[in-house]
Design a protein that fits this description.
This protein is α/β, with parallel strands linked by helices and about 550 residues long. Helices cover about 45% and strands about 15% of the residues. The structure holds 1,6-di-O-phosphono-beta-D-fructofuranose.
Length: about 550
Amino acid sequence: MAKKSILQQQRAAYQPKLPAVLWGPVKAVLGKPTESVADHEAIKRLFPVTYGLPELTFVKADEPVEQPAAINVGVILSGGQAPGGHNVISGLFDGLKALNPDNRLYGFLMGPGGLVNHNYVELTGDVIDEYRNTGGFDIIGSGRTKLETVEQFDKGLEILKKLGITALVIIGGDDSNTNAALLADYYERNNTGVRVIGCPKTIDGDLKNEQIETSFGFDTATKVYSEVIGNIERDCNSAKKYWHFIKLMGRSASHIALECALQTQPNYCIISEEVEAKQMSLEQVVDGIAEVVAERGNRGLNYGVVLIPEGLIEFVPEIKSLIKELNEFLGVEENKAAIADMTPEQQREFVLAGLTAAALATLHKLPDNVANQLLLDRDPHGNVQVSLIETEKLLSTMVGARLAKMKEHKKYKGSFAALHHFFGYEGRCADPSNFDADYCYALGYNAAQLINCGVTGYMSSVRGLTKPSSEWVAGGIPITMMMNVERRNAQDKPVIRKALVDLEGKPFKVFASKRDEWARETAYLYPGPIQYFGPSEVCDLPSRTLWYEQN
Ligand code: FBP
């Protein structure tokens, strides 16, 4: 058994807080039939059995409840790690055992691939106890295998039948929950007797909507990044000689960058969604930063902090069109087959030959490493792997060149030295904050109740998250309700609509009202490390984003 740190030993004893409604037996209250967020007819066709299901809310059962027959349940962790995944599993385990001590839980290994390839382990009490309140997904591992073909569904069904599993919980982001919905509908319309429940996971914070207030992991990851950004700000304010360009994970949406800006008050923070809304070119983005650097430099302040969301490049309109064109081209089956056996150099030539003049012009403006990543690197869901693109270096180089020009024109007299950072992996496996520990445990415990109700195609939902946890509302949301049709890999696909930063929303408005002051002044805030022990106003603090959205 691995040795535990002193904090880990103390933290193992933490008992996550559950909503009061889940403290005993529950009764499901069903709402009205639902509709998808858009493309109703198309989504209905694709999900003939699970489309239109009602929202479900749990209330306390008013009569004694008989113990249900024992069942076996499977669980999968899908996609990028997010703090709190282990607590979803421990909540699910405890919820199942509370329903019937003979219930059993199996974990499929290394993501959805474990289901297809029949790799699994039984999760017993001893195993679960080792992982309570810890970060990481190492209890069963995670992976990005996309579950969407009938062959995969049938292969999965073989092992589910063999293990007597009648419910599967998929813990994942928007793409993984989309796959969970496909699987749910397929198993239901084929009368397999297997139900599927999703759980909202991703540090990116982009799996949220009117029903799902936040995805788990966002709170902890942003607290970790904000701690380190605060430390860098303090270093910066002490040495007074560097500009720090900090790229922050978060894939497409800028929720993480915005949250960290609200927590640390840097000199500059780019919000990709604003760049797109204002149709800004890369040069204009660079000009925005250079102006702040020059204004401070001219007052002798040759230091500062710039936050950059990792997905920025995809939101610059000309680059967005380029990526769209590339995705269409790379999504065509003949093109996929043609490049399969080519060397990287041949692939590059082949793709370049298929692009329009406008796309080629944009591509030629970019450094080779960025161009190559846009050209060929995609994850299994067809997304550009933005975490691999060094936007922070691209921007600081362009800012340096812009400042040199300003100096020639006597508009800048400071000095500019840049340092680069990328925070992403540093926060994805941190021990969950109290908020995430409680939220995740509740999501898992609640998933057990959804299974017990016999529903399928639902996402576990816990709401009212800025209130004390005892008042949280628990229930289930039909996954099809969050869906629309989007273009992916040259095909129209049903997907959960991604939540981008709302430029009319309060978190952005608060940021926008303060940023000029933060650019000029040195107004840094140092949030410090996540606190697990101490006063509730420090330990149970929700993210600023969630707070502003709800208050
Ligand atoms: P999910 O969407 O699966 O939660 O992953 C989030 C994320 O951390 C993104 O922020 C990042 O772009 C991506 O994963 C990195 O992927 P990988 O872990 O495969 O390098």
